[in-house]
Amino acid sequence: MDYLRDHPDDVARYTLSHLWLSVVPVVIGLLVALPLGWVAARYRWTYAPMTNLAGLLYTIPSLALFVLMPLIIGTKILSPVNVVVALTVYTVALLVRVVADALAAVSPEVRAAATAMGFTGPGRFLKVDLPIAVPVIVAGLRVAVVSNVSLVSVSALIGIAQLGSLFTEGFGLFDTGEVLLGVLLCLVLAVVLDLLVVLGGRLLTPWQRAVVRR
């Protein structure tokens, strides 16, 4: 707590940077994973190659990907864009299978009923398939958010300022308190973001609350 008292501006800056680097890749990754997951669920022959490729991408060590990203996209080594793009890749890799499985789990009877009511194509996807798949997708988002909070801290090793900087600074100064503060703030951030994802899922599925009340 001594470091927090003596450096409140640095802690606030690190926290905001960590928050931004954690959340933006999840949002972008979800937007990319939704159409890819739909393709994998709609055309089953694409499911295996897409999910296998996603699994391979997720196994790439984060530090290696952070270092290689400037060579791939032409940015500077200290650019936060490297972290955003790398974590977006991880998020897409994690969510493609989740989205595909969630959409494939929508029963044919529900789809047939929706078609009979006049829902077809994109309309059925947005108003029927996707809302039913929301609980499963939310579960995947919770994993992605918490994973990103953890992975962002690794980027401190290449000089990206965020809560992981408290680890590297504290280790270099043999200051255990600073390291523990970084760990605590990462845990708090992960819990808060997880709760926000859960709350968002509940707001998007009001019919589930009605079922529970019954």
TrEMBL record:
Keywords annotated in UniProt: Membrane, Transmembrane, Transmembrane helix, Transport
Superkingdom field: Bacteria
PROSITE patterns per record: ABC_TM1 (PS50928)
Topology term for the membrane: Multi-pass membrane protein
SUPFAM superfamilies in the record: MetI-like (SSF161098)
The UniProt record lists the keyword Transport: yes
Domain ABC transmembrane type-1, residue spans: 15-197
Transmembrane stretches, start-end: 20-41, 53-73, 79-100, 132-160, 180-204
UniProt entry tagged with the keyword Transmembrane helix: yes
Primary location: membrane
InterPro entries for this protein: ABC_transp_perm/SBD, MetI-like, MetI-like_sf
Annotated localization: Cell membrane; Membrane
One Pfam family linked to the record: BPD_transp_1
Family (UniProt): Belongs to the binding-protein-dependent transport system permease family.
Protein name: ABC transporter permease
